[in-house]
Structure formats: C-alpha cells, structure tokens
C-alpha cells in the first residue's frame, strides 16, 4: 500500500507540474520573464530562512516527467521557474540561476535551479557557466 500511495503522490506532483508548465509557457508568451518570475514567487512564497529537510529529487523528476508529457517543448527557463515554485511551495528554498558560456556557434545561455544546500537541478556542471546573480 505504501508504494501505491507513493505512486499516487508522484502523479499528483506531475499533474501539478504539468499545469504550472502550461501556465508559465502561456505567461512567457505575453509577459516578460521578470513579470512571470515575480508572479510565481508571489503565488508560492517561502518563509524567511526556511530550508526544509525534504528531498527535492522527486519534485525535479516530476518536472522532467511533466516536460516529457508536454513533448519537451519548454525551455530550461520555464522548467526552472516551475521547479523553483514547486520547491518553495514545499518549503525548500531555491533560486533560478542563469549562466552563459562560449560555444562553437557563439554563446550558450542556460537556466537551472539551486537549492539552499547548494544542489543543482537542470545542469550537470554549473562550473562551466559564468553565472549571473541568483534570481
């Protein structure tokens, strides 16, 4: 029964991520990133100096599953906004990080999430990017 309950909880989390990804996708078509990010932070605030011991990995997996269900058309920025919002909703402090690096064809930009323990989601090696201040 415990694994059944876990499966239901995981699917509820995936459904929540799908809805948020759809909303962020639409919002980013009509509003600036700054406006979308500010509204999501207002919708899902975090208490000051809160860093829960909950595991952020299931949330990150749910956002990945939601992206695949939506055929993977979301950008790293949209996924980072959604992941940050879902983590903050679960009282895990997280920020969106944006970095750039040189590439063969010019410059690559990428967004990922960093939690309060310094763990990174959405990037294998953040050290290869020159990072802007956290958002």
Name its key features.
50% helix, four-stranded antiparallel sheet, globular, 4 helices, 135 residues, alpha+beta, single chain
Overall spatial form: globular
**Topology as H/E string?**
HHHHEEEE
The span between the termini is 40 Å
> What topology, given as strand order, has the largest sheet?
3-2-1-4
Outline the biggest β-sheet: 4 strands, antiparallel
How many structurally independent domains? 1
Helix content: 40-55%
How many distinct helices?
A: 4
* Strand residue percentage: 15-25%
Report the count of strand segments.
Answer: 4
Q: Could you name the ranges where pLDDT drops below 50 across 5 or more consecutive residues?
A: none
The secondary-structure class comes to alpha+beta
Q: Radius of gyration, rounded?
A: 15 Å
**What does the average pLDDT come to?**
83
